[in-house]
What does this fold into?
Amino acid sequence: MIGSVVAVNPTRGMVALETDDGYSIIEMLGDDPPELGDRIRWQGTTPLGGETVENLTQRCTYDVFFQNHHVSRALLRQQLLLD
It folds into this structure.
């Protein structure tokens, strides 16, 4: 699956990825989050828990924790822990 970074909460390390099926939410396990617009690829469609993902834009990998999938736009702020 491939998603584009559409929102980042750098304080909490939370990132929203837009996919064809809505939004996926990941928690970064490292220090440097991807940038808005970066394209991120991962194995499978809806993994949960710890995974390594590939940033196709910056040509690097990240260790992340998948929190949720198929999130609606209306719930993004809540899922990113911005509220």
Q: What stands out?
A: DSSP finds one helix and six strands in the chain. The mean pLDDT is 95. The longest strand covers residues 60-71.
